[in-house]
Design brief:
single chain; 438 residues; alpha/beta; Rossmann fold; pyruvate-formate lyase- activating enzyme; OB fold (Dihydrolipoamide Acetyltransferase, E2P); six-stranded parallel beta sheet; 12 helices; globular; binds iron/sulfur cluster
Length: 438
């Protein structure tokens, strides 16, 4: 068995789930490092004697992946490969009691707000002064910035409030301090994330303060791109579009999950918005920020969703011509409002509707990309892979959106740098480009 003396632990942190969880893992890494404990994030072939698994409990597939990962490390522990195994994050928050019973090999389970208790296991303190000094685990030129935690909405299908609690905004001062420190580390692009971005400030400042925050972050030296993820459409503060139009640092990009478009389904989902209001909001966005890229996600197979309701959604997507669309299949989650009704759309129908909706979008995506051929765009280059430098425009977020490919035999760019390119070819999800040599 790997053994190390009491304060000579080496910890490897494993992250599952979304970017919000990744930020939590980065905070765990930062706090452990700040307490002089050796720590890595998802190190291959790690010789760590302690593993922390930061889990996701969002929907069935994510839960399964988290459980399999815990079981995998429980086995490593049994074989003597590690001494201690801790589990934290959403799954652990939601199912702590069951997990303790079913996987007792884990030394301790922690909820999403229990970082200080986790640190105690290492005789480490939670250090407030480290707020804003987060060590990022993403590529060095971009970082996620979580502006709030939790959600006060009551969407019927959503388990997030059960795991993350009520909405708590971080202060503008803390966020600006963190952005400055990230910029010092070389970060040029910030992805603002929250369960519900547009609620920002209502708890802390008694007003929707996202426009104010955006202006403050856009002033931070070194931050060239700021993009917005997960805005809620109802009561959307329209000044956000004005700040976006006025400040070059705010990408003309908005990720706004709409979930559905049929009014009956929206009502059953408790989304507090109608299709007509949604159309008006998107029209306003496009009017105030010409060329804005709108990313949205939809949920198909919600209980009782009829073929006609689904068709209404398809027609809406065909008509609205969003720049980016993602589709999730409904997952029946206990303790949500929707759990009380029957999960009556079959798995096959959910899959079929997901495929059909993506097909509608595929044509739109190709059309939109083809329209970019011949255009000159600013691209931030992330990596080199398979003979190409690969980057993104301001209209594309890492991991989820389109990429720009530059032939590495005939072009050279430094990773993490911006460059001007001309688009020479397009497919549904990729753009091919050449460098503009001025
Ligand atoms: S706004 Fe988002 S996080 Fe909040 S309850 Fe609705 S779906 Fe869940």
């Amino acid at each position: 068995m790997k053994t190390r003396s009491a304060n000579k632990d080496k910890v490897n942190v494993i992250t599952l789930g979304c970017s919000k969880n990744l930020v939590d893992s980065e905070n765990i890494v930062t706090q452990l490092k700040g307490n002089e404990i050796e720590v890595t994030h998802e190190e291959n072939g790690s010789d760590a004697n302690v593993v922390i698994v930061n889990t996701c409990g969002f929907i069935d597939l994510a839960k399964e992946e988290s459980i399999n990962t815990i079981l995998e490390y429980a086995e490593v522990k049994k074989q003597g490969g590690i001494e201690k195994l801790y589990v934290t994050g959403c799954l652990s928050q939601r199912y702590k009691d069951q997990l303790e019973e079913e996987i007792p090999e884990v030394d301790a389970y922690f909820g999403t707000m229990e970082l200080p208790a986790l640190l105690e296991k290492f005789e480490a303190d939670y250090k407030h002064e480290l707020i804003g000094q987060r060590k990022i685990t993403t590529l060095p030129h971009y970082a996620y910035l979580k502006i709030s935690e939790g959600c006060n909405r009551t969407c019927s299908f959503c388990a997030i409030p059960l795991m993350r609690g009520k909405h708590i905004s971080r202060s503008i001062e803390d966020l600006v301090l963190e952005a400055k420190n990230l910029a010092k580390q070389g970060v040029k692009e910030l992805m603002l994330i929250a369960q519900e971005l547009t609620y920002y400030g209502l708890d802390l400042y008694k007003e929707r303060a996202l426009p104010k925050l955006l202006n403050a972050l856009a002033d931070v030296e070194g931050i060239e791109w700021i993009r917005l993820h997960y805005a809620y459409p109802s009561k959307f503060p329209l000044e956000i579009f004005d700040v976006m139009a006025a400040r070059k640092e705010i990408c003309n990009y908005l990720d706004i999950p709409l979930q559905h478009a049929n009014n009956d389904v929206l009502n059953r989902m408790r989304r507090q918005i109608t299709q007509e209001e949604t159309r008006a909001l998107i029209a306003e966005a496009r009017k105030r920020v010409p060329g804005i890229a709108i990313r949205t996600t939809f949920l198909v197979g919600y209980p009782g969703e009829t073929e006609a309701e689904f068709q209404d959604l398809c027609d809406f997507v065909a008509d609205m011509k969003f720049e980016r669309v993602g589709v999730f299949k409904y997952s029946h989650e206990e303790n949500t409002i929707a759990f009380d009704v029957e999960d009556d759309v079959s798995a096959e129908d959910k899959q079929d509707r997901s495929n059909r909706l993506m097909e509608v979008q595929q044509h739109i995506s190709l059309e939109k990309n083809e329209a970019l051929v011949g255009k000159k765009l600013k691209v931030l280059f992330d990596r080199k892979e398979g003979g190409h430098f690969i980057g993104r425009t301001e209209f594309d977020s890492p991991e989820v959106d389109n990429e720009v490919l530059l032939d590495a035999d005939n072009n050279y760019v430094r990773l993490g740098d911006f460059a001007e390119v001309e688009i020479i070819e397009a497919t549904e999800y990729d753009l091919f480009a050449k460098l503009i040599n001025e």
